[in-house]
Structure formats: structure tokens, C-alpha cells
Amino acid sequence: MSDLIDEPREGENAPEFSVTELSGAVKRLIEGEFAHVRVRGEVGRVSRPRSGHVYLDLKDDRAVIAGVIWKGVASRLATAPEEGMEVIATGRLTTFPGQSKYQIVIEDIKPAGMGALMAMLEKRKQMFAAEGLFAPERKKELPYLPEVIGVVTSPSGAVIRDILHRLRDRFPRKVLIWPVAVQGERCAPEVARAIAGFNALSPGGAMPRPDLLIVARGGGSIEDLWGFNEEIVARAAAASEIPLISAVGHETDTTLIDFVSDMRAPTPTAAAELAVPVRLELMGWLDQQGSRLTRALTQGVGQRGQRLRDLSRALPRADTLLESPRQRLDSWGERLPQALIRSVQLRQVKLSDIRGGLRPSSLSRRIEAEKRTLGGLSPRLPAGLHRVIDTKREALGRRADRLKIQPLEQDIRRKRNDFDRLSKRLSDAGQRQVTDWQGQVEALDRLRETLGYKATLKRGYAVVRGDGDVVTSKKAAAKAEMLEIEFADGRLTLGAKPSKPQPKSKPKPPEQGSLF
Q1: What InterPro entries does UniProt report for this protein, alphabetically (predicted)?
Q2: I need a labelling partner for 27 at 20 to 30 A (CA). Which of 73, 203, 358, 498 fits?
């Protein structure tokens, strides 16, 4: 290595190296001197290309080091690096000859203390709140009595025993347990897969789809609960179509999944209490409602029976109702035969009167007269028809010469052109008129704003009011118990408020002497 950096002795030529040889020598020197290092700094630019590798910058107030996290290492990280996070990176220094720069190949990266975790948590909260994931209107209502409850937790902890025991005491239900790691690197991806897996189950399939999900874990430090602050877990909970209760940590512990879930329970036991009602209380309530229904039905039937009996006593007897109609029927029955005989007699008399005028001889004379009239008119009919037809034909011929299509088409085209021209003139004139009116309105509005006393206030003047009226003199101001000064940006009250409430009056426009 000394051959590369020693100066040649006098009289000897300096050695020549290729670019590749020199870059390789620098790479071996740096990797030999800095085989394994730990660097503390702030994460700058972060790039995640499709290859799955992560490229970032580690910086402080005076220097920047480029870093790379290979795809296999990035997938195993417990905390994904984000811009602005203070971290401690562990890895080895190397060079990238293609760009003549050195970089650190990161093998592990962790937040630098509690402050970095809280800063990252607050940043994620702001991001999810901006996306609307915390909005109350997107939260789903919990089912009153779910048939199947899915629980995402560790199968070996006390949490699942507490949940099952509480469910068994309150209202036994079918429970599906999806075992996951509740802390460490595997926590976040396993919890997210469990939530998505429950949602992927088909209703009515071999494996029943839960009606409610509970994500539970016992208490712990923020590092222990950090898996439930990961973005993948929060987004999986927000995307769940099944209502979800988060029961992570104790009552004072708060994670991101608590904000995006449909309901937060302070403890896993409380989550079981929120999931189902108390069976004995529900049965007692049902018995109480059944007794009330029975009493109401019995009372209603009794009241309606009594009402029916009261109404029946007020109704007349059936014989009484039929006495008058029966008597009228007997009277009309006695009068009907005489009425029929009288009607027949009247019609016979009328028929006799009409029959006297209908004699065969008179009918024959009338028919002969009509025949003679018809015979006289028959020879004249063909000639008259021919004359009428000829007259109509001549009139039609005279009109046919005038009814040509070409003049009509020319007249239609001419009138259409005139109509289009007039329409365009009317539209242009209307547009100009509207533009003029709009300009006049805008000018008047600007004049209104200029002449208003609000614009005068913006130039440094003020309006003085004393006891509700505008004060225009020093003498009036001295007599007033309270002065109110109105500036362009608000009002300022000086002096004690009046003991009696002053009647409200409409604000008067300031006079010329009230501005200063």
C-alpha cells in the first residue's frame, strides 16, 4: 500500500495506475480501516426504488454520508427510516467506484432514543389525520350481538385468557384466534396479515367470517408497543370491513391503531365487555318486556271489550230498526198493481192517437211524390257533376303554376339568413350591454368601498363613540362614562361600563369630525 502513496525517489519515474486499480485500492483501504461502525445522525433524503433497496443520507450540521440498505435487510427492519428521524445506523463503510463516493452499507437502523420515536409517532399521526383516517364519520358501528368474534393476539399470554373468560361470563360466543407476535420485528406484519386474513374470509364458508375483530395486547413500554404504531398496522385496521376494537396496552397506553379503529377499549377485558352484552341482564330485560307486553295486551283487550259493551247498549234493537222500512214496503206493495194498470192505460191512449194518422193511402201518396221528384232530378245530376269537376280542375291548374318549390326554398333561405344576422346582432348587443352594466356595477362598488367609513379607518382614522352615540367634540368625550374607539382592525373600550343597559340602536355613520 505504501507503493501507492509514497513519493518516487529522485531520478525515478512516478508509477502509473489505471482508474480501476486506484479505485480498488481506495476501496480496500476504507473497508480495512472501517470494517464495522455505528453512526448517529439525522435521516435526510430517502429513496425506495422498485428494486426494494433503500437509499438514504445520514447527516448532521456539518457533513453528509450516503447510505444504502439492501432489500433483504430492509424487509427485516423493525422501524422503517423516515426523513427527519434521528437514528443510530450500524454497518460497514465501503466505496462506490461508479460515482467516486463512499457510503455506509447499513445492516441495522434504530431510532436514537425515546424522543425520536415520539417525533416519528407524531408525524404519522399528522399524516393519518390529514388523510381522514381518524374521522368519526368513517368509523363503523359495532354489532349488538356478534355470532363470531375474531381475536388477534398472542395465544400464550394472559390477554387471550382474560378475553375468553370475560366472554364466557357475559355471553358465550364463537371465538376465532389468529396467533401473532405482539412485539418485536414480526409484530407489525403479522398483525396486518391477521386483520386482512379475517376480512378475506367468505361469509357462510367452511371457516366462518367474524362479525367483530379484537386486536389485543397487554401493557408495556413504547418500544414493546411500537409494532401497533407501524403504518402497515394502522392502514390494515382502517381498511377493515369488519368492525374492529383495539385493546392494546393499559388505559394510559395509546397507539396509532387506537385512533383508526372503530372503538378503543382501555384493556383487553374491557374489549370483551364492549363486544357482547350480559346474557343474564338481556334475559331479564326480555322477561320484563314480555311481562309488559302481556299486561298491555290484556289491558287493551279488556278496554276494547268494555267499549264494545258500552256501544252495544247505546244501539237500538234490530226489530226497531226494521219496523219503518217494513211498513213502507207493505204500503208500496199495495199501490204497485194499480200503478201498473194506470201506466198501461195511458200508453194505450197515446198509441191510438198516433195510429189515426198512419193510413196506407197517405203513405202511398207520399212515396209517389218523392219518386217523381227524384226522377226529375236524376237527368240533371251527371251534367252538374261534370261542370263542378271542370271548374275545380281549372282552379287547381291556376294554383299549380304558383306552387313551385324553388321560390319557396329561396324565400326560406333568405329569411333564415336574415334571422341569423339579426340573432347575431342581438347577441352582440346584449353581450355589450351586459359588459357595460357589469363595469358600471364594479365601478359603483369600488366607489362605495372608497366612500365608506371603513376605508377611512384603514388610512389611520378612528370612530369615537360615547354611551352608544358618536362623539364629535372634546366636551362630549369628557362627559361620556365610557368611550369606545373603533379602529380598522377592531374596537377598544375605555372607562367603566354604564350601570344601566343602554337601548340598542342602529350604528350611525361617522360624521366628519369624529375621525382622527
Answers
A1: Exonuc_VII_L, Exonuc_VII_lsu_C, OB-fold_nuc-bd_dom
A2: 73
